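Title: Request for sanity check on Dynein-related subfamily AAA family protein prediction

Description:
We are preparing a figure and want to confirm that the structure record we downloaded matches what your pipeline produces today. Could someone re-run it with the sequence below and paste the raw C-alpha cells into this thread? We only need the C-alpha cell string, no images.
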Amino acid sequence: MRLDQGSLIFSPQNGECPSWETALGQSREPRDDMPPYYFKAEGYENMLKGMYFNSVPLAKTSCVLGKKKLFVTASESYLNPEYQEIQLASKFDNIIVHFQNNTKIFRNTPIILLLTKIQDVNKSHYRRRSIKYSPHTTYDTIKNQESFEEIQRHYQDRLMCYGFFIEHFDTLHLYCVSVDDNSYTYSNLSLPQTEWTDWADWELKERKKNQNEILANSSQEDSIVEPPSQNQSFTPSQIIYYGVPGCGKSNKIREQLKDVPEKNKVRVVFHPEYCNADFVGQIYPYVKPDNGGVEYRFKPGPFAEIVRRAYRNPAEPFFLVIEEINRGNAAAIFGEMFQLLDRIRPEDGPEELSGNVYDTGWSSYGVTNIDVNAYVRQKSTDNPEKIEYDDSIPYGDKIKFINNTAVRLPPNLSIYATMNTNDQNVFTMDNAFQRRFKSKMIRNVLDENSAQYKTEIDDTGVYWGDFRKWINEKILLP
C-alpha cells in the first residue's frame, strides 16, 4: 500500500510535520454508481487482512488524538467526536526494511498500526478511514517512537517510508527512500503487486485477470514442474487457497495438478474428528493369515505415505493436498510435524548434520519419529506378509536416510490446502501456522453470461445476478 508522501519520516526535523496517516480513499459524496463511502487505495485488502490477524486489545492501545494532542485509549476514542475513532489496533513483531536495494530484518522492533475513522459529522471527510502509524502510538509498554528510533539508528540517511506490504499475515515490509534525496519520482517508486480493489469494476478486472492467467499460464506459483530428470531441483510450495464456499478452491488445485500422475498426489480432508494419528499414522493390530497370531504394525496416514513416496523418488514432484484445512484443528492434527513446515531458504545456506547436507527446500528442522522413519525405509508396501527395510536410502548425492535420521520434508514435496473463510463451524488457525503458508484468495466471480446469473428466483421476476448486485450495494452502504 502506497503511503502519502512525507507521512512517515523516522526522524523528522527542520520543521517537517508528517501527517502519520494515509487515507483509504472514502469520499462523503456519492460518485456515479459508487456507494457514498468506499475504499479506493490499491493494496488496502493486504493491509486490513494483515492487521486483522495481528489485532491487539484496544483497551491497552493509546494514541495522541485531537487538536489538544491528548493521549486517548482506543476504547475511549469513540466517546468524543473531536477524536478519530480507533477501530482496530495491530502489532507487528516482524519488520523488514527495504532501502537502496538492501533489506534488513528487525526482530525486536514492533510497530503498531491503527485503523481510524473520522466521526465528526461536520467534517468534510466524515466517516473516512485511515491507516495511522504515529510515533505517539503505544500498546501496553510498546511505543512506536522507540521502534522508529531503533530502525533509524541503523542507517546514515534519514529514512522516509513510502509503502507498506504485509507478508504471511504477520511480517510488515517497509519500503523506504532517503528524505534528502530528490532524484526520484514518488509515484514511480516500486511496491509489490497487490490486488486492485476499486469497487466499481473489480469484477471486470478479476474476470480479465483470470482469463489472462488461463491463456498465458505464466503464474510462477501455479506452474507445475517439467518432466522429471535425475538432476532436477525443486522449489517446494506451501499455499492455502481461501475463499467463500463454491468459489472454486478445489477446482483451482485440480487444474494445477491435472498433469501430475495420481501416484504423486495424496489428498486428505480435515474434519473435527480427524486427529494426528489419522494424519501421520498409528499402530494397529494385524491378524496374520492361517491363524498366525496377532502382531502390531504401523499403519501410515496420508502424511507418512506422501513423505515415503517423495523420499524414494527424488527426481519426481509430489503433492499433499489438504481440503478444508480449518475444518479440523490443524495445529493438533499436524502435531510435532508442524515443525517441518519451516523450509530452508536460499539465503539461509545449507545445513550439515550427521553427514547429510540439507539445502534449499528441505525442512529447517527435523522430527524424530521411528515409525515414519521405518516406513520410509520399507522396501515395498505391496506384500504385508514380507516386510523388509533398506539400511539406507539415498536422496541425491548429499543425503542418506538411515534408521536414526530425523524426518524432514524434502524439496520435491509441496503442500496445497483449501480454507473456507465464511463458515462458523471451523477452527481458528493461529498466525504461527498461517505464516508458514502463502495465501491466495479465490474470488467468487459470477459471470454475467452464466446460467446462474440469468436464473430467475422462483416466479418473482428477479434474477440472481441483479439481486446479487443490489444486495452488495446495500452491504457496502454505511
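Thanks, this matches our download. Residues 202-216 form the longest helix (15 residues).
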